[in-house]
Amino acid sequence: IAALYGAFAALAQSDLKRLIAYTSVNHMGYIVVGVAITALAIDPAIRATALDGSVLQMVSHGLVTGALFFLVGMLQDRAHTREMDQFGGLLKTVPLLGWSFVLAAFASLGLPGLAHFPAEFQIFLATLRVEPAAIIVILGIVITAGLYLRAIGKVFLGEPREQWAGMHDLNTREVLALGPLLVLIIVVGIVPAWVLDMIHKTTASLQLF
Q: Are 65 and 20 in contact (CB under 8 A)?
């Protein structure tokens, strides 16, 4: 319910920060699904897949949502508004901030090669094996994809508005703070095995109940 509620609630948002907050509820719902499948599954391999996926989702959520909130904070600091309709064309005005947001948004919607994908893939794979009807939560990904594509279109694409012509891009301090998050989003998405190995060493002991 949380996975779908977060996605549908985000549909009504015009405030960029609120949109991210509701999609965060959506991602937390996937974690709950993974934990529930862990409790229902009999096969140890499926239980491990679901639980490891849930914990990896927590890790990736921290990276992705942290980056998105950071970027929206930087945007609000410059524009003093978070209303998406007030922006437009910012990829041309502040390309570093814009492309960083695009990367984090694509990760949030579960694009392969970025942090959320391996976690959600494991959760959905285990769900299909144990409770196929619950896979309806995948609808949340479709809605989230539409939401972020709409946000990117409104805020960063199109012709720049004259009122934001003087907006400055990310400075060195901001790049140093944001850079590690973006790098980890890519690394965890491409080679999740090293994180999953660490996770499994801990979760293996939790599957004894």
A: yes
Nearest of 128, 130, 124, 112 to residue 192 by alpha carbon: 112
Residue 119 structural domain: 2-204
- Residue of 138, 123, 135 whose CA lies nearest to 56: 123
**The whole model's pTM is what?**
0.89
The values of phi and psi at residue 83, to 5°, are: -75, 120
Residue 159 · residue 88 · CB < 8 Å: yes
pLDDT value at position 10?
66
Q: Is residue 1 a contact partner of residue 24, using CB atoms and an 8 Å limit?
A: no
Domain count, the chain: 1
Q: Mean pLDDT of residues grouped by 10 in the chain (209 residues)?
A: 62 81 84 88 88 94 95 93 88 94 93 92 90 76 83 89 88 95 96 91 70
Question: CA of 7: how far to CAs of 2, 22, 71, 142, in Å?
Answer: 8, 7, 21, 9
